[in-house]
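Ops channel
N.P.: pipeline sanity check, posting one input/output pair.
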């Protein structure tokens, strides 16, 4: 608007936010549905923008509803911002499907007439049977397609696949039982992860879930989306991620790298390795199926803390038993557990293991927290970990040193979270090394949850993070020649 006294009037902030909405008027629902506030604008045929019902807010548009093809839908009770896909008709006799909210959107091609027919006035494009439309200048007119749009087709496929998962589970269990790569992963995890036996049911259930998904996809789509080896490697990477940096590095450098040396197999929140189709992962996410199952990390960590607490219960620490997670609501199918192996893991020679572990926990650079133990003394009567003694003395086992060194300390939580190794030192010498899987809080302090690494090469070496402070944090590099180098250290 031009004001003779003030010059051209600048658009207000509200107008600046509304104008870009017109760019999305003819997009698919993925672009349109995220835009709010349609009902707050006054359009032709709208008598009161505060009314709640579609028929009252847009009476002229409501009159264009097809009289016979919206059976089963209570069109007179639809909200004015409804996304319901409905059949419409115009005075010429055209019939088409379109979401109600998109029908009343003030697109430019309507020229202010909210009742304008899509087939009479809309720019060239494709109107899909699902009601979504796509502008396409190569079309002569607005063409009506018999198929749904790409996004709706992917959503339909995803729903059909999930519906077929239960019936596909027996075949999926058979395939998993015969997958040697799966049992290789379990064998190596059992060798290196302390609580693997107790955690295995959660791991097995996740593998069955993903194998059932792949089998259901094959049944519905008629083609296999991935190979057994690729799926095992992808699931193994996802499970390794749940066990922390230390175990993840070791498992990925050994059994996973053996089957997938290029590192191409992954599972992400909207992506699956293989030939699932570009739209299938996002479609699963849209309809509420969490491919990664982010809750699984918490289930595993909670179970480790419960097991650690139960192990210390004899010393007075105690723990409260956890309720079993409800896996059914997260898309886990029912099956007869545990699975009986029908394949044996291929043996791994010492030379192969040494070659594969070139980046394992004994040779890579890692972040560590360090604690210095004093001489042995009686523990306080209210010791949170229920220990009778604390401190160092000769002759203690790795397990005893771990219990005396892992807590309870007033460590900065971010230091512990960034570390994978706990170094326990005495008299400027490393006397014990352990992995870090989590923490347990005790008042103002915390205790590390993990397990001792009895044959770590740092045991017996000079303290690489020596400071005058009992607590420390830093980075350590171990070379192949046995040299230990501190990349930097900070006081705790």
């Amino acid at each position: 608007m031009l004001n003779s006294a003030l010059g051209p009037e600048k658009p207000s902030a509200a107008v600046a936010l509304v104008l870009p909405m017109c760019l999305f008027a003819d997009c698919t629902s993925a672009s349109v549905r995220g835009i709010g506030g349609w009902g707050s604008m006054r359009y032709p045929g709208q008598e009161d923008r505060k009314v709640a019902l579609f028929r009252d807010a847009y009476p002229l548009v409501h009159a264009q509803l097809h009289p016979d093809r919206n059976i089963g839908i209570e069109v007179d009770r639809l909200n004015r911002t409804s996304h319901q896909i409905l059949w419409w008709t115009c005075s010429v006799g055209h019939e088409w499907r379109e979401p109600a909210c998109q029908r009343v959107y003030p697109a430019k091609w309507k020229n202010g007439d909210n009742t304008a027919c899509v087939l009479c006035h809309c720019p060239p494009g494709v109107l899909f049977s699902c009601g979504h439309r796509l502008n396409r200048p190569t079309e002569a007119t607005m063409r009506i397609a018999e198929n749904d749009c790409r996004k709706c087709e992917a959503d339909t496929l995803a729903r059909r696949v999930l519906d077929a998962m239960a019936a596909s589970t027996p075949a999926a269990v058979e395939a998993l039982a015969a997958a040697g790569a799966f049992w290789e992963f379990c064998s190596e995890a059992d060798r290196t992860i302390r609580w693997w036996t107790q955690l295995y049911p959660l791991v097995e259930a996740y593998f069955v879930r993903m194998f059932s998904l792949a089998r259901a996809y094959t049944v519905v789509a008629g083609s296999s989306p991935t190979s057994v080896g690729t799926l095992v490697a992808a699931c193994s990477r996802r499970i390794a991620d749940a066990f922390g940096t230390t175990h993840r590095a070791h498992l990925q450098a050994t059994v996973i790298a053996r089957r997938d040396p290029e590192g191409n197999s992954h599972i992400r929140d909207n992506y699956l390795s293989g030939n699932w189709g570009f739209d299938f992962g996002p479609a699963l996410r849209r309809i509420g199926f969490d491919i990664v199952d982010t809750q699984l990390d918490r289930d595993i960590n909670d179970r480790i803390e419960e097991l650690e607490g139960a192990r210390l219960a004899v010393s007075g620490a105690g723990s409260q038993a956890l309720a079993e997670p409800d896996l059914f609501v997260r898309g886990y199918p029912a099956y007869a557990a545990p699975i009986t192996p029908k394949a044996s893991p291929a043996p791994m020679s010492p030379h192969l293991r040494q070659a594969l572990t070139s980046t394992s926990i004994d040779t890579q650079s890692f972040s560590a927290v360090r604690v210095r133990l004093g001489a042995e003394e009686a523990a306080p009567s209210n010791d949170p970990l229920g220990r009778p003694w604390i401190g160092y003395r000769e002759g203690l086992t790795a397990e005893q040193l771990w219990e005396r060194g892992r807590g309870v300390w007033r460590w900065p939580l971010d230091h512990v979270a960034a570390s994978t190794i706990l170094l326990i030192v005495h008299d400027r010498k490393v006397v014990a090394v352990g992995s870090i899987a989590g923490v347990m809080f005790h008042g103002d302090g915390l205790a590390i949850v993990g397990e001792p690494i009895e044959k770590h090469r740092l045991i017996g070496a000079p303290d690489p993070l020596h400071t005058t402070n009992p607590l420390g944090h830093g980075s350590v590099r171990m070379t192949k020649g046995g040299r230990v180098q501190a990349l930097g250290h900070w006081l705790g």
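N.P.: looks fine end to end. The chain has 17 helices and 17 strands.
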